[in-house]
Design brief:
The protein is of the alpha+beta class and about 600 residues long. It has 19 helices and twelve strands. It has a domain of about 140 residues. It is globular and about 80 Å long.
Length: about 600
């Protein structure tokens, strides 16, 4: 088995050269942050990821969480690791100093979170959901609720969850039937069942703060009649101490394909009609509030695609360097060499490396847009709004494909659980589903973010204009000419698809949505290729200046690979988007 090693050099390169870390540190509120401080943070995070989280990842998969009589016991080592995680301040990194956080930029948090997700994705889901709950409370709850709950949640002593899904209400939130009744003391009584609640019950945190969507008795139907409630596992006294157990219980935890170390709970509220909840914000506006949490989660789930691909790649690379098998095609020496020398194994590993670097660059670039948007940059806000579904949808689809490719490197033994390769494939599969499926992300991209934008297509056209300028600048440099040519072709394919979507949406939205997932993938490939091209330009500049650093040679190679092997798919996706709708609907349902 290989050990996880954080790709610090690539992380630092992307943060500094693509995300613009120095400029981010100069934004209002980030004055205490510096490039040197970030390097130290990444170094320490790498030690925690490899020394604490990675060693318990395998046990999380093989042993998993257990539930007996509503009490969940997490996998071996998880409780101790979580306590150390909180004690060393990792949980508090991104949050406001007002509530005990460190207030570090989103770009820095993104890099650190990638390490948690690579080293132990099941563990990382707990702080991820807590972070989303913190964001929702901080943006929408009363000052009283903020002061009472946020300090302990920021610290990590109390964890948080998101309760949307019900047995008969999955992606269709309008079908939610959980109820909230007003009580005389101004609180509410919550009743209903929620399913698929990540870390809904655990033995790591002292208290669990559930954010629950429910419907008041006089609420209007549909999405406009849903409210959001804070429902603690233990009620909290006025002095901040824990009080009585609330009327809620974990009925069971799911037996899943992957992420076994993450307890996925079925939560039952108000079995004795006494589950106390507190309204967040205004009545009947809960869906909008919950999307604060959802958008936080979607970017972070996209990062799971990066993290799982990186870990699977490292594991496959270790095996390819160790395993000796077969004659190497084209090697006249007939010497026994590791399978890394086989052409197709080399292709598989190059594919994993290049595509993971592209995903990482997109994730960090997106996080930098979040930082700039928080500082009041309207263009950055438009850019992150556009890219959020791409980060989530494209990166997770890539994570599934690349964890499969990494398993392929192992051959038959990869299919055997003892090698550990199968875990990354199984763990990755959920990422394209939860926090909004790939289709939901794609529908958001072609609908709200493109065709129904205030000025339809404005954000996409601004992005394309920037790409065109960069491609033209690179085209005159021989070492970048091939990358620039592939990038220009991909941009033209994107423009073709965008023009067709904007011209078609009003008269035939079903045709557009039939090709929305291919369009999302096309967009991810293009943006990833553009950012890899920008990385290549920096690397080429360093090499031209006399650097013999192998990192820059490798970066130029992976960018060339991505341009040659991935960017050409943009044209194929454009053809699918613009001409595939009729065939998608070409079969009568009785013939399926």
């Amino acid at each position: 088995m290989s050990n996880y090693t954080a790709p610090l050099r690539d992380m630092q390169f992307i943060l500094n050269e693509i995300a613009g870390l120095e400029d981010i540190c100069a934004l209002p509120g980030n004055e205490d942050c510096s490039v040197e401080l970030v390097e130290s943070i990444l170094d320490e995070a790498a030690k925690f990821a490899s020394g604490v989280l990675d060693p318990i990842n395998r046990g999380g998969d093989t042993v998993g969480s257990k539930c007996e009589a509503g009490v969940v016991t997490t996998a071996p080592g998880f409780k101790d690791a979580y306590q150390l995680f909180c004690e060393t301040g990792w949980n508090a990194m991104p949050f406001s100093p007002e509530f005990g956080g460190q207030g570090l930029p989103a770009a820095v948090t993104m890099a650190v979170n990638e390490m948690w997700k690579s080293a132990n994705m099941a563990f990382a889901l707990c702080p991820m959901l807590t972070g989303g709950a913190i964001e929702a409370i901080a943006h929408h709850a009363s000052d009283e609720l903020k002061q009472k709950y946020l300090p302990k949640m920021v610290e990590g002593t109390w964890s948080g969850t998101m309760n949307l899904t019900e047995p008969n209400a999955g992606s269709d939130l309008a079908a939610i039937s959980s109820k909230a009744a007003r009580a005389a003391d101004g609180t509410f009584r919550i009743s209903g069942t929620k399913i698929f609640i990540t870390w809904g019950e655990n033995d790591c945190a002292e208290n669990i703060i559930h954010l629950v969507l429910a419907r008041l008795p006089d609420a209007p139907p549909g999405l406009k009649g849903i409210s959001l409630f804070l429902v603690p596992k233990f009620l909290v006294n006025d002095d901040g101490s824990l009080g009585a157990r609330n009327d809620l219980i974990c009925s069971s935890i799911e037996h899943k394909l992957g992420i076994h170390g993450s307890p996925t709970a079925v939560m039952s509220y108000g079995d004795h009609d006494n589950c106390v909840g507190y309204l967040i914000g205004e009545e009947n506006k809960g869906v909008g509030y919950m999307f604060t949490m959802m958008n936080h989660a979607r970017v972070n789930v996209g990062l799971e695609g990066v993290g799982i691909a990186e870990r699977a790649y490292q594991h496959a690379l270790w095996y390819a360097r160790e395993r000796v098998q077969g004659k190497i095609i084209g090697d006249a020496s007939n010497a026994k060499k590791p399978i890394l020398h086989h052409p197709d194994v080399r292709r598989l590993l190059m594919d994993c490396k290049a595509r993971t670097e592209a995903m990482r660059t997109l994730a960090y670039y997106a996080a930098a847009q979040i930082d700039r948007a928080h500082a009041g940059d309207a263009a950055a806000q438009a850019r992150i709004d556009l890219l959020t579904p791409v980060v989530k949808g494209w990166s997770t689809e890539q994570g599934v494909e690349l964890s499969s490719s990494a398993l392929q490197v192992f051959g038959g033994v990869g299919f055997v659980e003892e090698t550990g390769a199968a875990q990354y494939y199984r763990d990755s599969r959920i990422t394209t589903i939860y926090e909004g499926t790939t289709a939901i992300q794609a529908n958001d991209l072609v609908g709200r973010k493109l065709a129904r934008e205030k000025v339809p297509g404005a954000a996409m056209r601004a992005l394309l204009a920037e790409m065109i300028a960069d491609a033209e600048a690179m085209g005159g440099k021989p070492e970048l000419a091939a990358i620039a040519a592939n990038l220009r072709a991909a941009i033209m394919a994107q423009q073709k698809a965008v023009d067709w979507i904007l011209a078609t949406y009003e008269r035939d939205p079903a045709a557009v949505h039939a090709g929305s997932v291919p369009f999302l993938k096309q967009t991810g490939i293009l943006v990833g290729g553009w950012l890899m091209a920008k990385s290549a330009a920096v690397a080429a500049q360093r090499i031209a200046a006399g650097s013999s650093d192998g990192f820059y040679t490798a970066k130029l190679a992976t960018a060339n690979y991505f341009a040659a092997h991935q960017l050409p798919f943009a044209a194929a996706y454009a053809a699918e988007v613009t001409g595939g709708a009729a065939s998608a609907f070409g079969l009568d349902e009785s013939l399926f």
